[in-house]
């Protein structure tokens, strides 16, 4: 189906899929938690968000807010009962990115409180799909030429 003919919900789903593929490829399919905590990973790899998609839609497709995590560490660690060691993985490995996403998030909340809501259009999602398709292709080409 042509992107233009998709609904906004379908475009968001496609954009999420492409973005997730890009992030996992960028991170070389290595789970941040497995690396930092030196704990064995399990399950397929996923795209994790430092600030959740539900909390801040503005950071949904921000490369600084996303990283690779395996199913086990993402679902039962990061989103588990004792998330601190997992949230620490992100903030201690990427202090600059942590400071950046916190700043964007706090500005986002301020705008929300003032009644200014971030409302992505179909064009917004199409732009994200095209952008991350291109970046994924560039990344794969760069990797292939290393050998
Ligand atoms: Zn893991």
Keywords:
mainly alpha; 7% strand; single chain; 59% helix; 147 residues; two-stranded antiparallel sheet; binds zinc ion
Structure write-up:
The chain has 147 residues and is mostly helical. The chain has one domain. Helices cover 59% and strands 7% of the residues. It has helices spanning 8-26, 32-37, 71-78, 84-93, 95-113, 122-145, and strands spanning 45-49, 66-70. Strands 1-2 form a two-stranded antiparallel sheet.
- The geometry reads as globular
Hetero groups bound? zinc ion
User: What number of domains?
Assistant: 1
Q: If you average the pLDDT, what whole number results?
A: 95
Tally of contiguous helical segments = 6
Number of strands: 2
Strands side by side in the biggest sheet: 1-2
- Please summarize the sheet with the most strands: 2 strands, antiparallel
Query: For the CA atoms, what is the radius of gyration?
Result: 16 Å
N-to-C order of helices and strands: HHEEHHHH
Helix content: 55-70%
Low-confidence runs (pLDDT<50, min 5 residues)? Answer: none
Instruction: Assess the beta-strand content as a share of residues.
Output: 5-15%
User: How far from one another are the termini?
Assistant: 35 Å
Category from helices, strands and their pairing: mainly alpha
């Amino acid at each position: 189906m042509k992107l233009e003919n998709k609904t906004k919900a379908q475009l968001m789903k496609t954009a999420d899929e492409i973005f997730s593929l890009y992030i996992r490829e960028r991170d070389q399919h290595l789970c941040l938690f497995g690396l930092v905590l030196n704990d064995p990973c399990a399950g397929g790899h996923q795209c994790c968000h430092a600030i959740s998609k539900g909390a801040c839609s503005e950071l949904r497709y921000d490369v600084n807010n996303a990283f690779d995590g395996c199913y086990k560490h993402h679902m039962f660690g990061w989103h588990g009962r004792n998330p601190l060691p997992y949230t620490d993985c992100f903030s201690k490995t990427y202090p600059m990115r942590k400071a950046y996403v916190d700043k964007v998030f706090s500005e986002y909340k301020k705008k929300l409180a003032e009644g200014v809501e971030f409302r992505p259009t179909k064009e917004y999602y199409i732009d994200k799909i095209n952008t991350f398709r291109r970046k994924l292709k560039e990344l794969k080409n760069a990797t292939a030429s290393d050998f």
